[in-house]
Amino acid sequence: MKVLVVFHSITGHVMELAMAIAEGAKEVGAEVVVKRVEETIPEEVLNKNPKYVEVKEELKSFPIAGVDELVEYDAIIFGSPTRFGTMSEQMKKFIDQTGRLWMNKALAGKVAAVFQSNEMPHGGKESTLLSMMLPLYAHGMIVVGLPPEKELFKAGSYYGVTSTGKPNEDDLKVAKMLGRRVALIAERIKGFKG
User: Fold this and answer.
1) What is the extent of the structural domain holding 17?
2) Are the C-beta atoms of 125 and 157 separated by less than 8 Å?
3) With 169 labelled, which of 8, 151, 160, 175 sits at a CA distance of 20 to 30 A?
4) pTM (2 d.p.)
5) Does residue 149 carry a pLDDT above 90?
C-alpha cells in the first residue's frame, strides 16, 4: 500500500501534521512518502517571517512532489494552510496542474483525504477542507474524512485534520487517526476504478 502525503507549509504547522499523518499510515503497514508542493513566494519575502526562518531547512528537506507521480500511489493526502478561507495558492497551483490526469481518469478510484492549519480559531478551517475536496471529487477519488470519535470533540473535523497554529497533542492524535484510516481503506479497495 503506497500513500503520498503532499503538503504546503510556511510556518511548519502543516508539515507537523503531515508527519503525524504519515506516522499513522505507517503504523498499519503502509509505505508512506511525504513531499511538499513547490513554493512560489520569493525567498527574500519568506525570510521576513520568523516562523519560516525557524523551519525552512526542515521544510526544504522534503522533496517537491510532481503531478505525474500521483498515479503511483494508492492514496494521496493533501495538506495546506488556510488563505482567506481556502487552500493556499501553492496547493491550488499543484492541484490545478492535474488536468491531464483528469482527462485520463488516472486518479479515479484512489483514496484521498485533506488536512489544514491556520493561525485563527475561526479562520476558515472547514471551508478550506471542503475547497480542497472539490477537485478530488472531480477526479473520481474516494475522499475519506474522520469518524465521529471522541478526539474530534477537541480537535479536527469530520472533513479532515485541522489545527490552530502549532498542532497540539490532540491535533497530532487526530492526524495519526486519519493516516491509519486512509491507509486501511486504501488497502481494502486497492485496484478499484469504479
Assistant:
1) 2-189
2) yes
3) 8
4) 0.95
5) no
